[in-house]
Every structure is written in C-alpha cells, then in structure tokens.
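Async update (no meeting this week)

Hi team, since we skipped the sync, here's where things stand on the single-chain job. The sequence we agreed to prioritize is pasted below, unchanged from the tracker. I ran it this morning and attached the output directly underneath so nobody has to dig for it. Comments welcome in thread, and please keep replies under the output.
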Amino acid sequence: MKLANLILEYLYECKGDFIALEQLLKATDAGHRRVEEALTELDRRGHRFERSPAQGIRLLRPTVMDAHLIERDLSVKHIGQHVICFDEVDSTNDVAFASAQQAAGQALVVTAEYQRAGRGRLGRKWLSPPGSAVLASVLLHRQACELPHEALTLAAGLAVAEGVAQAAGVEPTLDWPNDIVIDGAKLAGVLVEVRATDDIRQVVIGFGINVLATPPREMLTSASSFEPPDKPVKQVSRSATCLSEAVGGGLSLERIEILRAVLVRMDRWVAVLQSDGADELHEKWCRRCGMINRRLSVMSAGQHFAGRVVDVSPAEGLVLLADDGQRLYLPAATSTILSRLDR
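Output:
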C-alpha cells in the first residue's frame, strides 16, 4: 500500500502528463514487478491509467476521489485527518452517522462518487451524475457537537464558498440558509443534520458541489413540513450550474483539490465558532450574501411571510423586516425561501 500511494502521488503531481516507466522505477526505487503490483492495486481503487510504448504511463484525469490524496499534508487540526471514499452509497450523511462509534469523534470525512439517495434540506433530493461532483459528509468531533445548528449551517456554506474560490478561482455568493450560487444558479448546497442517541449528540455536515457536470434537472421534492397533509407534494425545478461551466473549461478541475480546500476552511470555521467567533462568521458570511436588502417570500413553520432581508444571524437565522413592519427572526431548520419579489 505504501508503494501504491507513493506511485499515485508521483503520477498525480504530473498533472496528466506521461512519464517514462524507467523514470517511475527510479523515482520509487522499486523493481518492475513491485511497481506493476502497485499499479494493479491502484486500478482496484478505481484509478485509470494510459500506457504508451513511446511515452510511458500517465494517470488519467479527472482523478477518482482517493483518501490518501485527500488527507496528505492537509493543514487541519480535526476535519480532514480521516477520510473514507466509496464508489456508491445511499447517502454519505447516513454512512457518517453509522460510523460515529468507530470514528471516535475524529471528524471523519465520508465521500462517494455517487449517491443513490442523496438528500438536501426538508426532505428534498440531491441528484448528480456519477463521478461528477464532490459529495462529502463530515462527522463533527465531540468538542464541536454542541455548536448551534444555525451557526454550523452558515459556517459550512461559507467554507464551501471559500474553498471553491481558492481551488477554482471563481467567487460564489451565498443564499440563506444553505445554497452556494454562481450567477443566480445553484452550484452547491449544505445539510447539517443532528441525531441524538444515548444522550450523545452527533452532528454531520453534508455538502455537494457540482464540479464536472450540471444535473439535467435538480428536483427538489418536499413533503411538507409546510403543506397540510391533504395537499400534493410539490416538485420544484431549480436552475443549477457546475464549476466546469463557470470557469469556461479553461481550468483543469480536480475534485480532490476542491474538497481539500473546503475541508481546510471548514476546519477553520468550526474552530472559530468554538472560540466564540460568531461575529467574525457573521461578517464574512454577509460579505458573500446576495440577499441583503432583497425582498423575499418565505415560508417558516407553516406561515408565509414577505419582506426585506436586513441581516442573517448565526444565532437567530434570517432577519426579515416584514411588509407589515414586524422584525422577524426565521430559523433555517423550519424555513424555506419561496421566491424573490424584487426581480
């Protein structure tokens, strides 16, 4: 396994270029048989190679998600030290929760190439073609599990936006409570889930980022927390985008590098919240928010409100100056934005 990881690192750093087999043998200080065995192991892990008698061998890109490449030399204290990668799961959030006992509170990160039953807020579905997105969930370490849901949702969204900006060179904006947006289209979303067992509170932060493909149709299906049971389930089609569209195809996008950047930012923002840094989070989040001073139609806890956004609070949620003059505080857990009214 150590040789396989060494070869993987070497080929990955070549950024898709060919290297001669002799050069690979020299770089790894291993014989031909051991190198071929290591390449077979990497093939079993899902990595794809191209061989040329004249040019040698190269790692085909985009690279599949790989725990070793994600973890190596990652400058984090907690989140990102322990990663497991799957080809296919029902939900990375569910796997993270199921791993809570084995993870021993070490901020385990679960990734998958495809989710059969990925979900967003309020029972909605998250769909993405296999191998096209960053699909990941973080099981928070025990010291962070008591942080407020509202603040964690903001921190996770900001971490995704900042990570994408760093890795891909674009500047997403944030729509409360959990959408990461480019030019009005949804690029990514986050879902913070809390489960309590045996008086232990477990928190998982899940996020999905469209990188290499845009879902043909993002179906957000909600059984309403907001609609009476005799009304039909609503299906809402929302515009979506992906990073490859946003950068115009001129940048080689590696999902591994995007995930690494997000994990570094998430590790930092969770630490900031643990150090009573809600004010800093509030300031940075609002700088990226595209909703301040916009008029919205919002459903919260079964009631409909319309008004102008005056703030987003890490403690109290969306601060809305309603059309009737009331100042409302709407929590993310029970609220959803229906439409913008000032377009």
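Quick observations from my side:
Residues 218-237 have pLDDT under 50 and may be disordered.
The two ends are 56 Å apart (CA to CA).
Reply here if anything looks off.
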